Amino acid sequence: MTTKMNDQTIKIGWKAPSNIALVKYWGKRAGQLPVNGSLSITLEKSTTTTFLTFSRKLKSGGAIEMEYFFHGNKQEKFSEKILSLLNSLIAELPFLTDFRLVIESENNFPHSAGIASSASSMAALALCLVTMEEIVTNVYLPEADFFKRASTLARQGSGSACRSVYGGIVSWGKIASIRTSSDQYASPFPVNSESRINHLRDTILIVSSEEKSLSSSSGHAAMADHPYWEGRRVQANGNLELITDAIRNDDYQLLSKISENEALSLHALLLSSSPGIVLLKPNTLRIIEEIRRFREATGLDLLFTIDAGPNVHLIYFEDQREMIMPFVSKTLSQFCENGTWIDDKIGTGPRLLTPKVEL
Ligand code: 2P0
Asked: Is the CB of residue 267 below 6 angstroms from any atom belonging to ligand 1?
């Protein structure tokens, strides 16, 4: 494109994946900073696609002008959340008040399926905003800085979103053994190219697709005066150190032990909040029992994790998929709502959907 920004309408699109945490972010400090470090697997198929269209306002400055569409419809609740995020970013992205913005977003996975939509949607939006920043300021960042900036902005929309800016295994939060780690943004966690970890699968067992009874924000808030606050911080940071060892050494027993400890600890913290929050369902517990029984009987490398909801993520390796899928379809599906599960796997990260614009 060669025309001047002044008379142009530019459309940017990014597709960003969701992620599932093995070590859980639970509890935050001011500035949407985490109490503890976390580590996640970026998914491949469960994604949000966001297009950001912008054109210069007749008069620069003033209030942000933004229209938001979700699956083609105006969606008040999401729109308010996005507008409040954009307002909070004005100091960092001052050009936001100079343009008319139209944001169109779509998820390709069902609402309330136990897949974090705030992670993929805030990551996709943050990537669009950094691309817009490059175009309007005419300063193009080196790739590593681009994603670091997108991760920092995504974090401010939703903590877990900062991890969705990268593919593979991703960590967020300062820990001693990861030199590049930070509370401000996530970083890709290096995995040996030969490792089976590069071929993880995630089968999401849908125990219930009902809307969650708890917003993430109130869940995090419940940690602020939690009697186990300090213990949890120590546990999670310790688990993060251990899980990074497990990944570096391809130690799948340790990987399962830590992941399951994290999933159950998250729910133990919810249960012991005041008032107690019960998100697990009877079928969640049946699935856990069956997974442990099956692992004991077969010796296969599989583990479960659970987000802040009732659905179970069954994590295993591509090379054992043939042996695990019959167990899913015959045994685990009985405990799923309408026998439903979603097949996903470790993914390569976000993708720019529109041609690169340089003015
Ligand atoms: C995680 N979760 O690490 C943890 C585990 C759910 C359980 O981060 O308030 O949507 O937007 O920062 O990121 C869910 O909380 O919360 C979450 P906000 P977010 O994935």
From this structure: no
Instruction: Name residues whose C-beta falls within 8 Å of residue 282's C-beta, 6 or more positions apart in sequence.
Output: none
Q: Report the number of distinct structural domains present in the chain.
A: 2
Q: Is the pTM of this model over 0.90?
A: yes
21 Cβ below 6 A of ligand 1: yes
**Hey, which of 24, 25, 29, 273 would you mutate to test ligand 1's pocket, going by the most ligand atoms within 8 Å of its Cβ?**
25
Does residue 164 sit in the same domain as residue 223?
A: no
Q: Is 259 in the pocket of ligand 1 (CB under 6 A)?
A: no
- Cβ-contact 137, 96 below 8 angstroms: no
Q: Is there an atom of ligand 1 within 6 Å of 307 CB?
A: yes
Using one digit for the tens of pLDDT, what is the confidence trace for 152-196?
A: 999 999 999 999 999 999 999 998 888 889 999 999 999 999 999
329: Cβ contacts below 8 Å, ≥ 6 apart: none
